[in-house]
C-alpha cells in the first residue's frame, strides 16, 4: 500500500465571496509534482465553475502540515 504524503490545499474566493470564508478542498498525492500539476487543473476547473474573476491560493503540504512549495 502506498502512503499518500502530499496534500493540495486549494482555496477559492468567487467574486463577492467573503474573504474570511473561502471555499476549499484538500486532495492527496504521492509526489509534489503530481500535486502541482493537479493544482493547475483544479484552478482552471474553479474558473470554469465560478468565473474568471475568482481569487485562488494553492499549497502543496506534506503530511506534517509544512508548506513545501
In a nutshell, what does this entry contain?
28% of the residues lie in helices and 33% in strands. It contains one helix and three strands. It is α+β, with helices and mostly antiparallel strands and 69 residues long.
Topology (SSEs and partners):
Layout: E1 6-13, E2 23-29, H1 32-50, E3 55-62
Antiparallel strand pairs: 1-2, 1-3
Mean pLDDT, as a whole number? 88
Query: Given the structure, what is the number of helices?
Result: 1
Q: Please give the alpha-carbon distance between the first and last residues.
A: 26 Å
Structural class category: alpha+beta
Strand content: 25-35%
- Principal-axes geometry comes out as elongated
Ranges where pLDDT stays below 50 over 5 or more residues in a row are: none
Computed CA radius of gyration, to the nearest angstrom: 13 Å
List the secondary-structure elements in sequence, H or E.
Answer: EEHE
What report would you give on this structure?
Helices cover 28% and strands 33% of the residues. The protein has a three-stranded antiparallel sheet with strand order 2-1-3, with helices on one face. The protein is elongated and about 40 Å long. The protein is of the alpha+beta class and 69 residues long. It has one helix and three strands.
List keywords for this structure.
single chain, 69 residues, alpha+beta, three-stranded antiparallel beta sheet
Amino acid at each position: 500500500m502506498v502512503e499518500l504524503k502530499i496534500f493540495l490545499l486549494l482555496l477559492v474566493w468567487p467574486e463577492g465571496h467573503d474573504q474570511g470564508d473561502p471555499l476549499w478542498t484538500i486532495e492527496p498525492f504521492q509526489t509534489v509534482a503530481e500535486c502541482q500539476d493537479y493544482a493547475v487543473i483544479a484552478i482552471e476547473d474553479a474558473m470554469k465553475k465560478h468565473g474568471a474573476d475568482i481569487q485562488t491560493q494553492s499549497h502543496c503540504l506534506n503530511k506534517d502540515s509544512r508548506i513545501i512549495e
